[in-house]
UniProtKB/TrEMBL annotation:
Keywords: Endoplasmic reticulum, Glycoprotein, Hydrolase, Membrane, Metal-binding, Metalloprotease, Protease, Transmembrane, Transmembrane helix, Zinc. It is found in: Endoplasmic reticulum membrane. One of its GO terms (biological process) is proteolysis. The keyword Lyase does not apply. Its main location: endoplasmic reticulum. SUPFAM superfamilies: Zn-dependent exopeptidases. This is FXNA-like protease. Belongs to the peptidase M28 family. CDD domains: M28_Fxna_like (cd03875). Residues 151-345 form the Peptidase M28 domain. It comes from Drosophila sechellia. InterPro entries: ERMP1-like_C, ERMP1_1-A_TM, Fxna-like_M28_dom, M28_fam, Peptidase_M28. It comes from the Eukaryota. GO terms for molecular function: metal ion binding; metalloexopeptidase activity.
Length: 878
């Protein structure tokens, strides 16, 4: 009896083994040889380099002066380049410097007069106005005051038109210290001059006057544009804006902000931009505030309610705000590209009927994007909502139809098919989590090992560090499932089909959710679903759905979204790579790059990566991808992964030569010293400098002095510096810093007001073009009023002491007089009431650095770019 039971058991086990063997054999018959898998993956890489890369970097041929007679009315890049050489030779153009307030203004006036001489004076009238506005507004957490900054404003109008609606075209001519600013924003200055010239010599008059604003205080920040839009005589007539910026040097200009509302602006961009380059996703990212940048567009929008377009060249951001932002870094073909776009848009807006009453056309936002620079797509936000929801629902319906077809073909109930699909969908969700998690884990591990930003100079490292792990995560759960638990009740091709359906369902849900929270970015999901749903529909309507080669149609149609997603996320990477050099050290930048790579991989390869399972031994492909990641990781921790390179991708070093004098209430000096105040710009802090000739032996964090001294004992320059003051560093120096100019802070008077509990302190300050005040009431004291704008006082939940007042001037160096009223419940103003910090920054090279400072600067290695200036910091107690 026992013997028979043993025989039956052995026979049963033998049958199970035989079934498993047959299943494996059947499975292998449906799979391609394993050695095709690397070719399959490399095919998509090759498509990127063969199609996306050249189209992304494509620029138009420049028009030379010698071509002008045969190409009338076209933008002439050679003339613009000649102007850029003149602009570049002026050197850095810091607000308040002779270079900015005198030399550059004279350059602009001369070129405008040259244009006037060539103008069709019978058709056009040209007016030139040099404005020197003074004012103030809130810039993040500081009062931003300006006095006598410079705007060079030109208005050109047709004599035959009486329109009072003006088009505003803006760029800025000032620059950061040490940078000639030939990219930011000299490129757009000369583009505007050539556009003005082409408009002025045209035989075809236009309807609406055009105001060309060359503003001289954008880097300060954004002061001259505020002065124009709130004070200039032509400002209230401006109805639309074209803002031209540069966040690097060269390349195409990206439309990254539009509106607000006014989708007609995008319509005109669609109809007239010669080289479209735009995405709604960039607009939503920029307006989220995660980028360490801002433009004049915000000022015109917030203070002038001007709708418009904000465009910027974004290539080679490594030279942005450095000495290497010079004319040699600006390709002439990029001038042609930006010039052709600007000229065609200016001509179109100058004749747009919507300009008369833009508020009548301000219905909602627009969804927009270009496809590989070949054509432009736009539609209203309402249309986008309808498209997203309809295509998502239609895709879900097609998935259900496909699953029903699979069940009928395999003679399996819909219930069982649904269970299998639910399992695959769950595994796909797990794969999505892993595709995000593994790159982020790599980012955390490299940062923990002090190896962040290894891709900063060698961008290709992100392929192995983040993109390949994202692919591994995406396909790992399904690959293990198909390998370890084969299911012969339904064919392997149908299993693969289910995995693609799972991605379709996931994209549909994401599209619906993101659309519900009023984002416009779900157009990415819509695009992918449109082409996948189209492939499924064709397969269902034909016999392809039931054949093994249904996958061919799916992949052919997926080429369209794949190329677009590669193009889009390549754009984001090229923007963010150099930006991380000034992203600050409080956040791990690798997390951001890993996230971009992971999301880009999810969209670009979501319908591609699961197909690795059509090959035999897919685990071998996973192993190969793991080896790729390991090899790239080893390269990244070698010298190849050192982030910085001389001249091309430098380390940004910002520091001030500071002379500190802290006075007590009785007038005695409690602290008098000198040192270097560092605001390190990226994650690696000062560590790359440790084995160089620069001596940082006594460098210490300022955090320990924040409880003892006002503003942590450092003269933080503007809001960004002040925001990171607790994480800044101080390096003492033996020699006293020589302050290269006169400064003064005078207490003009102190008077107790009628209530007896409020005292007014009146002051006067004078000094260099950049000064700051820091106001800290002592315990039991509040600021009741002051002569500055009251935003900080009226919004105590938003702003708190110490208050920063940033003051800059251009051509008007008159002393600043102000008063502050303090309320004290005791009414006793014979005791200390408040601390007042006064910082005088000698930013421009009109002021000399002392010998010790110059020696210190020269000690920095060639891979470091230094931006510095002397500063006097005095602290008083009144």
């Amino acid at each position: 009896m026992k013997s028979r039971e043993k025989n039956r058991s052995a026979a049963g086990n033998s049958d199970v083994a035989l079934v498993n063997v047959l299943s494996q054999q059947k499975l292998r018959r449906h799979r391609l040889p394993w050695y095709y898998a690397p070719s399959f993956l490399l095919l998509w890489v090759a498509l990127f380099y063969a199609v996306v890369y050249p189209l992304y970097h494509r620029l138009p041929d420049s028009v030379l002066i010698s071509h002008e007679s045969s190409k009338p009315g076209q933008f002439v890049a050679e003339r613009a380049q000649r102007l850029l050489y003149k602009y570049d030779r002026i050197g850095p153009k810091v607000v308040g410097s002779v270079a900015n307030e005198v030399t550059t203004v004279a350059f602009l006036e001369e070129e405008v007069e040259n244009i006037r001489a060539a103008m069709r004076s019978d058709l056009y009238e040209l007016e030139l106005d040099v404005q020197h506005p003074s004012g103030a507004y809130m810039h993040w957490q500081m009062v931003n005051m300006y006095q006598g900054v410079t705007n060079v404003v030109i208005k050109i109008s047709s004599r035959s038109s009486n329109s009072s609606s003006y088009l505003l075209v803006n760029s800025h001519f000032d620059s950061k210290p040490s940078s000639p600013g030939s990219g930011d924003d000299g490129t757009m200055v000369v583009v505007m001059l050539e556009v003005l010239r082409q408009v002025a010599i045209s035989d075809t008059p236009f309807e609406h006057p055009i105001v060309f604003l060359f503003n001289g205080a954008e880097e300060n920040p954004l002061e001259a544009s505020h002065g124009f839009i709130t004070q200039h005589k032509w400002a209230e007539n401006c109805k639309a804006l074209i803002n031209l910026e540069v966040a690097g040097s060269g390349g195409r200009d990206l439309l990254f902000q539009s509106g607000p509302n006014n989708p007609w602006l995008i319509k005109y961009y669609y109809q007239n931009a010669k080289h479209p380059f735009a995405t709604t996703m960039a607009e939503e990212i920029f307006q989220s505030g995660i980028l360490p940048s801002d433009t004049d567009f915000r000022i015109f929008r917030d203070y002038g309610q001007l709708p418009g377009l904000d465009m910027a060249q974004i290539s080679n951001g490594y030279v942005y705000h450095t000495i290497f932002d010079n004319v040699q870094a600006v390709p002439i073909d990029s001038l042609q590209s930006s010039g052709e776009n600007a000229l065609s848009l200016v001509r179109a807006f100058a004749d747009a009927p919507e300009m008369r009453n833009p508020e009548d056309h301000s219905e909602g936002h627009a969804v927009f994007f270009d496809y590989l620079g070949l054509f432009f797509v736009y539609y209203t936000e309402t249309t986008g909502i309808v498209l997203n929801c309809c295509i998502a629902v239609a895709s879900l319906v097609l998935v259900v139809c496909s699953l029903l077809r699979m069940g009928r073909e395999s003679d399996v109930s819909m219930g069982r098919v649904s269970i299998w699909f639910a399992i695959i969908l769950g595994l796909h969700v797990l794969g999505m989590i892993l595709s995000l998690g593994l790159p982020l884990l790599m980012a955390v591990l490299f940062d923990a090992g002090d190896r962040s930003m290894t891709y900063f100079s060698n961008n290709w490292l992100v392929i192995g560090l983040f993109i390949v792990p994202a692919i591994i995560g995406q396909i790992l759960p399904l690959t293990l499932y198909y390998t370890l638990k084969p299911n012969d009740e339904i064919s392997h091709p149908n299993h693969i089909h289910m995995s693609l359906h799972a991605h379709c369902v996931l994209l549909s849900l994401i599209a619906i959710i993101l659309t519900a929270i009023s984002l416009r970015t779900p157009y990415l999901c819509m695009m992918s679903l449109l082409f996948y749903g189209g492939a499924v529909l064709i397969n269902l309507l034909s016999t392809l759905h039931d054949r093994d080669y249904w996958v061919l149609l799916v992949q052919v149609l997926q080429l369209v979204p794949f190329l677009y997603f590669c193009y889009l996320f390549y754009t984001f990477l090229l923007v963010f790579f150099p930006m991380l050099g000034r992203f600050g050290h409080g956040t791990n930048p690798d997390l951001l790059i890993a996230l971009i790579c992971a999301v880009g991989t999810f969209f670009a390869l979501g319908f591609v990566a699961p197909l690795i399972n059509i090959f035999r031994w897919p685990k071998l492909a996973l192993l190969g991808l793991g080896v790729v990641t390991f090899i790239f990781s080893m390269i990244a921790v070698s010298e190849v992964g050192f982030p910085y390179r001389a001249k091309t991708s430098v380390m940004r070093i910002h520091f001030l030569h500071v002379r500190r004098i802290f006075y007590e209430y009785d007038g005695s000096v409690s602290l008098s010293d000198s040192g270097y105040y560092f605001d390190f710009q990226d994650r690696r802090l000062y560590y790359p400098l440790e084995n160089t000739s620069v001596n940082l032996t006594d460098l210490a964090s300022t955090s320990s002095e924040c409880d003892e001294y006002l503003m942590c004992g450092v003269p933080c320059f503007n809001h960004r510096w002040c925001k990171t003051r607790t994480k800044s560093h101080w390096l003492p120096r033996e020699q006293e810093v020589a302050i290269p100019g006169a400064t003064s802070l005078k207490l003009l008077g102190k008077a107790v007001l009628d209530s007896g509990k409020v005292a007014r302190f009146e002051f006067e300050i004078s000094g260099p073009p950049h000064m700051s005040l820091y106001i800290q009431p002592l315990d039991g004291v509040e600021v009741e009023d002051w002569s500055f704008i009251r935003n900080m006082l009226d919004e105590p939940d938003t702003y708190s002491p110490p208050y920063q007042i940033f003051f800059a001037y251009g051509s008007d160096n008159s002393p600043l007089k102000f008063h502050i009223d303090f309320a004290k419940s005791s009414g006793d103003f014979s005791t200390p009431t408040f601390q007042l910090g006064f910082a005088a920054s000698f930013v421009s090279y009109d002021y000399d650095r002392d010998a010790a400072g110059l020696k210190f600067i020269s000690d920095f290695p060639d891979f470091a770019h230094v931006m510095e200036w002397p500063t006097l910091y005095e602290r008083y107690i009144f």
